[in-house]
Amino acid sequence: MNHILKKIEKYRIVFIVSVFVSAATASFPQSLKGDGIHDDAEAIQAMLDSRDATVYLPAPQVCYKIGKTLKIHSGQTLMVDRNAVIRLADHAGAHLLTNDDHAGGNERIAVIGGIWDGNNRTQTMVYHEDRNAKDLPYDPERYLGILMVFNNVKDLHVSGVTFRDPETYAFLGGNLLRFTIENITFDFNLLRGNMDGIHIEGNSHQGRITNLKGTTNDDLVALNADDVPLFEMSRGPITDIQVDGVWAEDAHRAVRILSCGSPVKRVKISNVFGTYVREAVILSNHGVHPGCSSIFEDISITGLFCSNSRKGSKDPHIRIHAPAQVSSFTVSDCHRTEEASASDHILIEKGACIEFLSVENASLQNRTNGTIHFIRNLGNIDRLCLSNIFTGNNVTLMKNEGVIKNLQKTNIPDTALTILGLGDSITEGGSGFCSYLFPLWKQLTDAGYRIRFVGPRRTAYDGQTLEHAGFGGKTAEYLNSVIDTLYKNYPADVVLLHAGHNHFDDEQPVQGIVSACESIIEKIKSINPDAKIFIAQVIPSGKLPKYAYIAELNKQIVIMAERMHVTPVNLAEGFVWQQHTVSDKVHPNPSGAEKMAAVWFEALKKNVF
Fold first, then answer.
1. Is the Cβ–Cβ distance between 604 and 494 less than 8 Å?
2. What's the rounded mean pLDDT across residues 564-571?
């Protein structure tokens, strides 16, 4: 029985291949040249105008030279040999392919295979001549530097295509219903600054975009319910779209979803890989229609395996752009190992509002010298649910500078110990001198401790950036005036307080400094009774008589620390200003910073780890 079935299957395959080859051979006109010299547009158009259900283009000797836009009809499949190059003629200023009836609409169109070459070195569209041209209205007759343009099509299928060197986009489609774009390769010379991949415009529904690979220097996929006038083929809702499988290295961005007046609903993004200059995914407004609302409903990301492609990138991995109004946004199975640049992972901008945000089954490993915030919120979140998230060293699970009405966390492993360095310029660091935080970070991490410095301020030194609450030129009294808000925003497990400079001896400041430090400790404990607070006997100074009061201050700090049940740390002992400060006789030199760090390290090892 199996033998008979195999024979039947064999004859069925032979029959199908024979019919296909016969049809292809019969419709191949003698006028087709494929030599890269003669214009083949008329001959190919004649094949399409035959209205044959399948039009086949075999691999040419060189390439098919195209001098004007080809138009495909309803009910047609254009099948192109995978090695066949269809190349826009020099200075032709035309799109390579479109559907024949933008006004009335087409249906059941398929384009399979081929290398579609826009020859962008010899083309110039209006936007590249005048940037203000973006405000011109969309005109279907205007050349926009796009390889394929489809407008008002039901049941569109584009598969196995290589897009090469467009002047702007590889593909532009709008007013689409039930469409599939799959197995696409982008072979771009990156000559232009806005060479995008697949652009879907408004009033498009029930689409699947899958298996894209290659590097673009703008969006690989853009779902733009609204757009700048020049490219706004159609404006309206985009609904029920799947983007599944994107591979790129050093590309601009993987997926943009844009709403500026028209909503985008039910979009699922899955399996995005590679490295990106900007965001992997952005929900944006882009100001294409100023003042219009930006509405997103039921957006999900499942499977994001990306990182930054370049050092110095400041863009987050996922961005919710203001003034987005998002009903439900879910992120799952996203895993990032960052080696290039310490940018935020998920950023909700100020002015963006999310009703429900869920993040689950995710991990973030930071191998840079900076700190990464897994979630940084500047907007408004009604409900935030976090589950099964692992963060490595120098990763903050959440930095909230906006409003989160309801937060639910489930199965989130113990994260790194957070440390707040609190003080003046000796904590902050500056040009010409080093903060003790930098050698302390190295000593702690070298010892294998999982720690993360936090705070509202950042200092860079020797290629590394650390966060802290060091305020140059400020006194202990100033720190007391801001500690409530500061510690609520950065509720660290450990506080290292080094404050006592920036007064004059003739002020008799000791009692005021001690009282301010006592108040700082009380306020921290009222917010977090479990906080471990270390207060320093401050380093001596050679700047006299200004700092003659420091010796007495350090005696009173020990007494106050005992009374307040916090740990005093004697940074003064063994610190010789003649050896350990820079020329101003106050701030630590590298040797002094190392010495301070070593004392802090021993205190932490003894009392925390």
1. yes
2. 96
Residue written as tokens 């200004």? 546
Tokens found for residue 365: 């490993």
Give the helix/strand (H/E) hosting 126: helix 126-129
pLDDT at position 20 over 60: no
**Which of 312, 223, 313, 212 has the alpha carbon at shortest distance from 268?**
223
User: Is the distance from CB of 389 to CB of 374 less than 8 angstroms?
Assistant: yes
pLDDT at 299 > cutoff 90: yes
Cα–Cα distance for residue pair 356/572, rounded to 1 Å = 51
Number of helical (H) and strand (E) elements in the chain, helices listed first: 10, 34
Nearest to 264 by CA among 197, 194, 325, 350: 325
Query: 21 pLDDT exceeds 70?
Result: no
Contact assessment for residue 284 and residue 252, using Cβ atoms and an 8 Å cutoff: no
Instruction: Work out the average pLDDT over 58-63.
Output: 95
Q: Check: CB of residue 348 under 8 Å from CB of residue 376.
A: yes
Length of the chain: 609
Query: Could you say which DSSP state residue 230 is in?
Result: G
pLDDT digits (tens, 9 = 90+) for 235-248: 999 999 999 999 99
Q: What is the pLDDT of residue 11?
A: 40
Please give the Cα distance from 187 to 119 (Å, whole number). 12
Count of Cβ atoms closer than 10 Å to residue 257 Cβ? 26
For the record, the structure tokens of 259 come out as 């709403």
| 110 membership: H or E segment, kind and range | strand 106-112
pLDDT at 451 (0 to 100): 87
Q: Which of 252, 253, 225, 227 is nearest to 241 (CA)?
A: 225
Phi, psi angle pair for 209, to nearest 5°: -120, 115
C-alpha of 95 from chain center:
32
Could you report the per-residue pLDDT of 429-452, keeping only the tens digit for each?
988 899 999 999 999 888 877 788
Closest CA to 199 of 231, 244, 167, 235: 231
For the chain, the average pLDDT equals 92
Sign of CA dihedral 224, 326, 278, 378: positive
Neighbouring-strand partners of residue 204: 238
Answer yes or no: are the C-beta atoms of 238 and 271 closer than 8 Å: no
Band of pLDDT at residue 13, cut at 50, 70 and 90: very low
Q: Which residues contact 552 (CB under 8 A, 6 or more apart)?
A: 510
Distances (CA, A) of 91 to 66, 189, 191, 372, 481: 11, 18, 16, 48, 68
Nearest to 430 by CA among 451, 458, 396: 458
Q: 66 pairs with which residues across the strands?
A: 88
The larger pLDDT score, comparing residue 22 to residue 215, is at 215
- Single-letter amino acid code for the residue at 305: F
Nearest partner of 58 among 99, 18, 89, 86, judged by Cα: 86
Determine contact, residues 211/197, Cβ cutoff 8 Å. no
**238-251 vs 204-214, strand pairing mode:** parallel
- pLDDT at residue 2 tops 90: no
Q: In 399-453, which ranges are continuous DSSP H helix? A: 425-428, 437-446
| Closest to 589 (Cα-Cα) out of 455, 429, 399, 464 | 429
